[in-house]
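Protocol step 6 of 9: fold each sequence in the batch and record its C-alpha cells directly after the sequence line. For illustration, a two-sequence batch is reproduced in full.

Sequence one:
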Amino acid sequence: MYNIDRLFESVAAKGHVCVGLDTAAEYIPPAERQKAACDADAVLAFNRAIVDATFDTAACYKVQIACYEEMGLAGLSAYSQTLNYIRGKGGLVIADIKRGDIADTALRYAKAHFSGEFEADFATLSPYMGMDSIEPWLGYADSAGKGAFVLMRTSNKGMRDFEYLELNGTVPPQRLYHAVGNKLATIAAAHLGKYGYGAFGAVVGCTEREEAAEIRSAFPNLFFLIPGYGAQGGAAEAAALLLREGNGGVVNASRSILKAWSAEIGSSGGDAFAASNTFAADAAYRAAAEMRDAIQAAAQNV
C-alpha cells in the first residue's frame, strides 16, 4: 500500500488540513521558551502539544527542516523526535526538505529521509535538475510505500520567475509548471495507488484561484500538497477547486495555526507571558478545526 492511499483515507476521515510544524522558537509562548533548557527543547515540547491537540483534525503534518537546522545538532534532534512522535501516534508526516540533487546523491538523500533517524512518510522534492533528481526516490515507493510531493506551481511571489515561463510549440499554450505536471502524471500512472492517485504528487499553491480548476482537470491522478492558505493569502474556495470529488489534496497552514494563541491573546488584550503550551495547543485546535470546516464547506459547493 502506498502512503498516498493512507493519506487519502486520512483526508476522508479527518478532513484536508495539513498542520505545518514550521516551528520557529519565537512562535512559542514566552514563558514556555524561557523555562526550557534550550530553544530546541522548547520547540519539541510545543510541537508535541500541538500534535496532541490537533491529531483528530489533521490529515497529516508537514515539518520544515530549516526551522530545526538553524538550531544545530539539538535542533536536528528535535526534528527527528518530532517525526517519531507523529509517526508513533499513527500519523502521517511530510518532511519538507525540497531536495533536488541527482544520481548517487539523490539516493543518499532518499535513504536519509525515508529510513533511519529522519524517516518520514513523504518528502518534498524539487524537479529542476531533471527527472533523474526524482527517479532515485521512486524505489522507496515500491519497497516501502513512501511518497513525495514535487514542486509544480507554488504559492510564493517568485513562482512567476520560472514556473510561468511559456513553452514553445505547445497547443494550447503551456507553461513550465505544466511540463512538470506532465512528467509527474507519467510517473503517477506507473505507480498508481488504489484510489487513483500516484505515489508521488505535486505541490500546487492555492493563491491563484483562476488557475485552480484547470490544474485539477489537467492532472486528475496527482495528489496535491496545497500551500498558501491563511498567512500567504489563499482561501478555502481556491483550495477546494484543487480537490477532486472532495479528496485528492491536503491544505497546509503553519503560522495561522502555530500562532493562533498569540492572535487570540492579542484580540482579547491578554498577557502573552501568561500563555502556556496548553493554551497554545487549544488555540491551534480551534484554528485547525475552523480551517477544516471552511474547506469542507467550500468543497461541497464546487
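Sequence two, same batch, same settings:
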Amino acid sequence: MADSVMASDLVKKSFRVNKFPHIWCPGCGHGILMRAVAQAIENKGFDPDKVCIVSGIGCSSRAAGYMNFNTLHTTHGRAIAFATGIKLARPELHVIVITGDGDAAAIGGNHFIHAARRNIGITTIVFNNSIYGMTGGQYSPLTPMYDLATTSPYGNIEQTFDLPRLADAAGATYVARFTSYHVREGIKLIEKALDNKGFSMVEGISQCPTYYGRKNKKGTTVQIMQWMRDSAVDIKKAREMTSEELSGKFVIGEFKNRPALEYCHGYQKIIDRIKDEKRKR
C-alpha cells in the first residue's frame, strides 16, 4: 500500500482516537515519527493483531498509548527487555519498541546492546530529541557535546553516543537514521527494518522546541527542521566527503543491512535438535 494513504484513514485505523489530543508540546517532532511508524506498518500490510508495540518511560514512550495495536507501556529503560520476552514467547509477532534517547541509551543501554548482540527479531525505533523532555530538560546520552540543559547550564562536556555506530558494533543487523524533516525517507527505512528478521535499530531525530530548542536558542520548530534539512547528509554522499566537509553535519540513511541468524530461530533449532535426538533414542 502506498504511503500516500489519507492521513485521516490512517489515524482511524492505527490510532486510539479516544486518547487524543496527545500530550506532546506544540511543535514536538514525536507525532511525526509516530505517524511514520504507523505508516510503515500500514505499508507492510501487517495484521494489527500480529503487531506488538512496547515502550518504556519518556516523551517518546507515550506513543504506545496512542497506537491501536497490542501495546505495553513498561518501566523506564526496560522496554527492550519486555519486548525480548514477548518475542521469545510469540516469535510470530512483529515486535516494535518505541523508545527515547535516555530510555534506550542511558538506563536501558545494556538491554539495547545485548538485544543487538543476540540479534533478536525486534525493531527498535529511537525517538531522539537530544534531551530528557518529560522530566525537566536534563541532558541525555544523546545531547550534543557543549549544548545546554537544566543539568548542564554551562554546557554538556560528555561525549555523545553515536547510536547507529553503537548498534552496529553490538551486532544489530539493520541500522538506519532519519529525521522528522526527512519523513518520507524515514518511512522506507522503517519498512526495511521491519523486513529484517534480526535486531533492527532506526534512530529518528526529533525536534524539541520546548526544552532543548529554547535552552540552546535553536529558534522555532520550523527553524529547527530547516536546520535538519541543511545539516543532514545522506550516507551515500557522505562516503565521498572529507571530514572537513562533514564538520557540523550529521549522516542519515541506511548504515547497515546484513542479515544473520535471528535469536528465536536459532533457539528453535536447538529445541528441534534436542527433540530429534530424543526420538532417535
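Proceed to step 7 once all outputs are recorded. Observation for sequence two: The chain has one domain: 7-280.
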